[in-house]
Design a protein that fits this description.
Layout lengths: L6 E6 L2 H12 L3 E5 L3 E6 L2 E7 L15 E4 L5 H10 L6 E2 L3 E5 L5 E5 L10
Parallel strand pairs: 1-4, 5-8
Antiparallel strand pairs: 2-3, 3-4, 6-7, 7-8
Amino acid sequence: MKTGVHHIALRTHNLVRLELFFVRAFEAQVLRRQGSRAVWFQIGSGVLMLEVAETGEPTVPEGLMDLLCFPIERGELESFRERLTEMEVPVEAETQFTLYFRDPDGRRLGVSTYCFSDVKPD
């Protein structure tokens, strides 16, 4: 079986705001737009879909610690931090390899230079 991420769908009550965030923070290019209901971005070999949440659908719970983390090159961590600062998006935690922050809906995101191919199996 082939493994990997096919697509990730994030639901939002403010599609325009979330789309702008991903365009600015990740320099994401729109792959497909489905009217005012959804926007798709190519993310590596997968697709990130932003979809309009239905009326009454719950928002992201405050303080949720689930994480969606994107890879970046080792030399890009500081420039990404600067981009977040320009966007007035606070870094809420960090490690040697990873910056953690929140999207406008409060979803926890990260960017990381950590290379899993360096990990030896137990």
